[in-house]
Amino acid sequence: MAPLAVYVHTPFCPTKCGYCDFNSFAMSGPIQGRVSSAIEREIAASPTRGTPANSIFFGGGTPTYLSALHLTSLLRATLAAHPPTDECEITSEANPGTADADKFAAMRGAGFNRLSLGAQSFRDDDLARLGRVHRASEIERAVMLARDAGFQNLNLDLMFALPGQTVADWRSNLERAFELGTEHLSLYCLTLEPNTPFSKEHRAGRLTLPEEELQVEMYDLAVDLAADAGYLQYEISNFARPGFECRHNLAYWRCEQYAGYGPGAVGRLGLPIGPTRYTNLKHPRAYAEAVERGERLWCESEALTEENLRMEKILLGLRLDEGLDSQGLDLSEEALRSLEERAWIRRTEGQIQLTRAGKHFCNEVALALC
What are 303-336's pLDDT values in tens digits? Predict the structure, then answer.
């Protein structure tokens, strides 16, 4: 039985950030325990129960907004259903503002071996504008607590092109991150997702973001400085010390199978009906009620055709520095030559890789090849 990736979605956050379009809810109290119990029941009844896990990822929301009891119980239920392979990577996202020594110690003891800390910025004014609950000083504290608890694999999330951000501000953020010495960095450009408060403010002229040329400069600076600091870029927005690439996200980008549990979780599995992508009911109460009543949890599902799978492989595979394996994709030679002439791609032994310039045009390259 081939191992798969496992995703567990915990939808609760202390607050809802203005840029966030993830399935998250600022809810606390008994609903957290009710939903946690429902997720355990979903996992126990999974049709993929017994399939080993190459990676397990707790995302959200803010998983560490749950109590240590709920969080470790969820992990035990996941491990019971999906025995971990010897090298299984087990990650939890964490907000620095929810960092707690006892909770981190309990998580490490239960089997979590990687933390992904949503730092976003080392400037308090940025964090306040983003609606984050933590302050810059809490990022270093969270890293120290994680190290003390025994975590030897840490990621920091940082965002650039924030409102009012300068290149000097971004350089300072990167340098602070390098000083903390985490094994992995995820460096994302702020995007305005439809129907978020940030998107509405931008349309109303109340939110100004750096111009596109400045965003390009910030990205290129991150690539250069990360390399100088010893990080290898293995995906457009992700950088790691050798051997610390995120295995779970690699499963997504390589179009491997993954099971999704929890409110709003997405899965992609080879089911008896064929390759299928599904999304669970999104609202925590609706999800919990459906589990308790034994009702169907999917609110959306899609049968993946050969053409769907081909397009997905192109769109995701191009993001990786290892490149896209072109075998069996029936790519247009004319389109490939055109992209080479623009110096957006290079071809080596059946692999198609974005050039440094091409990384700024990943979507355009994918559309040309699809």
Answer: 999 999 999 999 999 999 999 999 999 999 999 9
Record the pTM: 0.96
Q: Determine the Cα–Cα distance for residues 190 and 207; give it in Å rounded to an integer.
A: 13
pLDDT tens, residue by residue, 6-55 = 999 999 999 888 888 899 999 999 999 999 999 999 999 999 999 999 99
Counting every residue written for the chain, the total comes to 370
Tell me whether residue 237 is exposed, middle or buried, using C-beta atoms within 10 angstroms of its C-beta: 0 to 12, 13 to 18, 19 or more: middle
Q: Is residue 288 part of a domain?
A: no
149, part of any domain:
yes
Is 273's pLDDT higher than 80? no
Distance CA 18, CA 168 (A): 24
Give the separation between CA 238 and CA 196, rounded to whole angstroms.
Answer: 25
Tell me the pLDDT tens digit for each residue of 159-188: 999 999 999 999 999 999 999 999 999 999
DSSP track, 141-206: HHHHHHHHTT---EEEEEEES-TT--HHHHHHHHHHHHHHT-SEEEEEE----TTSHHHHHHHTT-
What does the alpha-carbon distance between residue 190 and residue 193 come to, in Å, rounded to a whole number?
9
Rounded to whole angstroms, the Cα distance separating 141 from 110 reads 22
Cβ neighbours of 80 (radius 10 Å): 13
Write out the two tokens for 264.
């709003």
Q: Are residues 141 and 225 in the same domain?
A: yes
Number of domains in the chain: 2
Whether 29 and 176 map to the same domain: the answer is yes
**Domain residue limits at 356:** 307-369
Written as six digits, the tokens of 345 are: 């791609």
Same domain, 314 and 248: no
Reading the block at residue 349, the tokens are: 């032994």
Q: What is the CATH number of the domain that holds 73?
A: 3.80.30.20
Q: The tokens of 227 are what?
A: 């390399």
Residue 261 falls within a domain, yes or no? no
Contact 63, 10 (CB under 8 A): yes
Please identify, among 253, 271, 289, the residue that sits at the C-terminal boundary of a domain.
Answer: 253
